[in-house]
Amino acid sequence: MESPNQTTSPLLHRGWRHHLARLSCATNFRLKTTIWSELGGSVGDLGTYIPIVLALSLVNHLDLGTTLIFTALYNILTGFLFGIPMPVQPMKSIAAVAISESQTHLTIPQIMAAGISTASVLLFLGATGLMSFFYRVIPLPVVRGVQLSQGLSFAFSAIKYIRHNQDFATGKSGSSRPWIGLDGLLLALSSILFLVLITGSGSGDAVDQPLLELEDPNSSNNSCRRRRGRKFRVLSAIPAALLVFLFGLLLCFLRDPSIVNDLKFGPSKIHVVKITWDDWKIGFVRAAIPQIPLSVLNSVIAVCKLSTDLFPEREVSATAVSVSVGAMNLVGCWFGAMPVCHGAGGLAGQYRFGGRSGASVLFLGVGKLVLGLIFGNSFVRILGQFPIGILGVLLLFSGIELAMASRDMNSKEESFVMLVCAAVSLTGSSAALGFGCGIVLFLLLKLREMDCSCIGFFKSKSSTDAETGLNS
């Protein structure tokens, strides 16, 4: 977490050798993580990534191969630079506008223009130090309200995925999901039970559970603790989320064996997207304007706060995260890669399933890169058959983990601000609106406390004056 006097990122002052060493240390067993845990955490944010990428590919003809390659490179670089499972997720507001049926679907140049515009704002805020200033002055209850609303929003969407068939081309829920089948409700519920059994209640319940040091090996209590510690060590070695995801990939081919014939080998051709002046105007007004406040709040400030909660020993500054989001899109969007950001939900999801270092997203990046280079855009046929119920399960755990970050509100006033901020964000479908209401509410409560303290001061002063007069 940044100190009050810190305005620049330590990442800008440390060399590559330091970050490589930190990554290699972070993947050491002594820091309570294993390669299997990192592999499990690597798929923790795919419940958000796959539905949005699939919708953009089907509706707006986004080139999946290009997006896979660029997001893979982003994952690898951020894994080395930050040393934590820093996610690379789609810009959700831009995606929502792009596939919305209320207006004409956005074209690829318009989507890229929106991504570049948003990235330029974040790069400016990061480079000038304004993002660090916002991170220091924004009250914690307001940040927690944004995190709570985003987490619950993910969880609500996940329940819809699990209960109903989804049409990503229209964004609408279909008929109720049948109980039996290769994408049935029973399969989704079994996945939930399996993940709960292996990973527990979240926040590293299985991964971080220590094997307690025993003072008296003959004690029955210590023997119980020893067996419990061994059990948790065994559970932490199981990459539960990765197994569920791989099982979902297997079901893709069982549901439609003909997708094998549609696969084409070789990466997509990389080309520069031509953006006209009209594309800039439409992309900025319709998509970038609603995306910018969401990126500032959830992709930078909430991510930095959550990373401080989860990894207090590793420093991640708002400046570095903001510059990272800006740099990624100012490069990739010119070549047609999907606009991306660092989402707090993705970080929570990858931590939930075992990610404890940059190795987690590095493994994910290598996997995306292989798929993008081998299958290119034809991989969209496989994703089109992926069981939506399993995606909903992964998204559900990610959303709950993000929402649980708000459990540290200890006072009634803090909880009040957080809950109002979350409620407005959810009902108004706007994190910016909830943020504004939370700030106003927080200031009003502080003003009320200040008024009470002033009254107490004057009463105390009057009593002192009265006593002085009596003594005289």
Automatic annotation (TrEMBL):
GO MF annotations in UniProt: molybdate ion transmembrane transporter activity
Name the keywords, alphabetized: Membrane, Transmembrane, Transmembrane helix
Q: Does the keyword Membrane apply?
A: yes
Q: Give me the segments passing through the membrane.
A: 64-84, 111-135, 180-200, 234-254, 361-380, 386-404, 416-445
Q: Give the InterPro entries listed for this entry.
A: MOT1/MOT2
Keyword Transmembrane helix set for record = yes
Q: Which residues form the signal peptide?
A: none
Q: Which PANTHER family match?
A: MOLYBDATE TRANSPORTER 2 (PTHR31970:SF9), PTHR31970
State what protein this is by name.
Molybdate transporter 2
